[in-house]
Specification:
mainly alpha, flat
Length: 116
């Protein structure tokens, strides 16, 4: 239980730090966010908990394939917001498109024998 609290605390601290940096310098926050820090933390926690290199390899490969369909959200959301769409609705629509793209990516990869 202590390990879970430490993981949650460190991960939450990272998110809070990025949010605070973003208030002062959006560019600096974007640079921090664009680093795969969450993925790296996830891999660290996974390896520390399991020591399983194969599971870690699957995790890292799947992360690559799932990052690709998430990228359009970062173009669609601002495009909607600039056209007056409510923040929450724009974000919800962006997430819905991302989920749809995840499903399509998973199906496409399965056709090529890549199960993620």
């Amino acid at each position: 239980m202590l390990q879970l609290l430490i993981k949650a605390g460190l991960s939450g601290l990272l998110i809070a730090l990025i949010a605070e940096v973003g208030k002062r310098s959006p560019t600096a926050a974007v640079l921090i966010v664009s680093l795969p820090l969450v993925s790296v933390l996830g891999m660290i926690w996974l390896y520390r908990d399991t020591g399983d290199s194969e599971r870690l390899s699957v995790h890292a490969s799947a992360t690559f394939w799932y990052v690709l369909p998430s990228l359009p959200m970062f173009l669609l959301c601002p495009w909607r917001w600039r056209r007056g769409v409510d923040f929450h609705l724009g974000l919800l629509l962006g997430c819905a498109v991302t989920v749809l793209l995840y499903l399509l990516t998973r199906a496409a990869l399965a056709r090529f024998g890549l199960a993620i």
